[in-house]
Structure formats: structure tokens, C-alpha cells
Write a structure and sequence with these properties.
By secondary structure, this protein is an alpha+beta fold. It is built from four helices and four strands. About 30% of the residues lie in helices and about 20% in strands. The protein is globular.
């Protein structure tokens, strides 16, 4: 996965929530994976989002304890702004504690997603 530069939404100090670089069930709207989570921000008419959904679901199915969570960017503008999401798809890789360990914009390659999971598990 090509990592985005720091800036808004970069991991920072703190305890919980997007400003702290940690996301939990309350922010995600779903239960995170035991080992890691692949969080996808999508929009309704985004063609690459559909392909990204398939890739992430396939990778999550290959690795025990990894969840794929898709968030509609238009429905969660608060979270999009807090994390500095500028385009869809954007994928965040979270570790077991909900910390953002990788971040990439655009459709990822399957091999890159698998490699990024290595930083989280």
C-alpha cells in the first residue's frame, strides 16, 4: 500500500478516538478484528471502491482475526474530517489496539494489503 504523507489524521498522542490515532467500535460502527482491521472509506458512485471492497474482503477472509469494515464517507463526515480523508477509497490498517499503522488512498493491490497487515499483526 502506498502510504500517504502525515498531515491531518496522522497518528498522534492521546488515549482514544480519531484525534488520538485510535479507532474502536464506537467510531467504526462495527466490531474491530481481534488481530487487525482493514477500514475502507467509500462513496456510493466510486468505481474503485467496489474493487477495493473485494480485495479487502478476500484478504480479511485469509487471515484469522482480521475484520474488513467499510464506512460510507458521506454518512460519516465527522470521522472523515477528523482523519483527514480526502478521497475514496482510502484504506486504514488498524492493529489490535485500534491504532492506525498504515494508510493509503486509492485502490490497493492485494499483495500490498497483505504486506501492510504484517505491520499490524
Amino acid at each position: 500500500m502506498r502510504a500517504e504523507a502525515g498531515g491531518p489524521g496522522a497518528v498522534g498522542p492521546g488515549t482514544d478516538g480519531p484525534a488520538a490515532g485510535r479507532l474502536g467500535a464506537a467510531e467504526l460502527g462495527a466490531e474491530p478484528g481481534e488481530r487487525a482491521s482493514l477500514v475502507q472509506f467509500s462513496s456510493a458512485f466510486c468505481q474503485p471502491c467496489r474493487a477495493t471492497r473485494r480485495i479487502l474482503a478476500e484478504v480479511a477472509g485469509m487471515v484469522d482475526g482480521v475484520a474488513h469494515i467499510e464506512i460510507d464517507a458521506e454518512d460519516r463526515l465527522d470521522l472523515v474530517r477528523a482523519l483527514g480523508i480526502e478521497k475514496t477509497p482510502t484504506v486504514l490498517v488498524l492493529d489490535a489496539a485500534g491504532r492506525i499503522v498504515r494508510r493509503a488512498a486509492g485502490m490497493p493491490r492485494k499483495a500490498d494489503v497483505i504486506a501492510a497487515l504484517g505491520a499490524a499483526v
